[in-house]
Design a protein that fits this description.
This protein is an alpha/beta fold. It folds into two domains: about 230 residues, Alpha-Beta Barrel (TIM Barrel), CATH 3.20.20; about 35 residues, no CATH class. It has an eight-stranded parallel beta sheet. Strand 7, helix 8 and strand 8 form a beta-alpha-beta unit. Helix 3 runs parallel beside helix 4 and helix 6 runs parallel beside helix 7. It is globular. It starts with 5 loop residues before the first strand and ends in a 12-residue tail after the last helix.
Length: about 280
Amino acid sequence: MKSGTVAAPGAFNALVARAVAKAGFEACYVSGGAISVAAGVPDVGLLTLDHFAKIVREVSWGSGLPVIADADTGFGEEEMVRRTVVEYNHSGAAGLHLEDQVFPKRCGHLDGKALVSIDQACSKIQWAAKASADCSGGSFIICARTDAKGVEGFDAAVNRAKAYVQAGASMIFPEGLTSEEEFGAFATAMESMGDSKPYMLANMTEFGKTPMIPLSRFSELGYDLVIYPVSTMRIAMGAIERGLAELMETGSMKGQLGGMQSRDELYNLVGYTPGTAWEFPV
């Protein structure tokens, strides 16, 4: 991030993570929303820390890349926030983000969200920062996400973000911004913190409140990391539903062959040559 804006496509399992790395990306993202819907449940905090940590570990191992991972609201109060940082660090993640919503949380691009107090959010961030110091010497990134823009307004979101940096967050994730102007103004407000200026994360999710903004523009606006949380899942599920519809209608997948990953391509992705012993990577 010190040398340029990093794109982090979302991966919801190790195979997708391998594809992210093979495509040449420098980082990978694990979305709580993608983890949840892949398990067949909505993104409302139904899954456990152990479930999330398992996926984080698979994506980290599969990609071999730095992974930033969604930790929702921390799976509980301060004690659980500390455990979450330690578990994610042990699972190979390079960092996580915590949000300031009331549990059960909602997708950041939906209406009807509610926030915890600034004091409570800051306390969780303080515990997360101390856990990072204890388990990684502080190298594990603590990113604070604020959903305040859609609840309390833009200025309140900026004020919360500044408080979160003072509490120990090294990165800020302003969720639900609706224009390039808002992204630029938010980054400028964070720059006013001088030496305490945090790294900035932007969420480029489709079908939400944020317009489609290219990576180069996010870089111009002052963002260090751009996540694409559910893009790979949306691509995959769109193809799956079209394929299943064709199979139901025609009784064959023949028309889908051109869009499928071939057997050779799959073997290449996992580094497997039939007839040759496959060594588990270290």
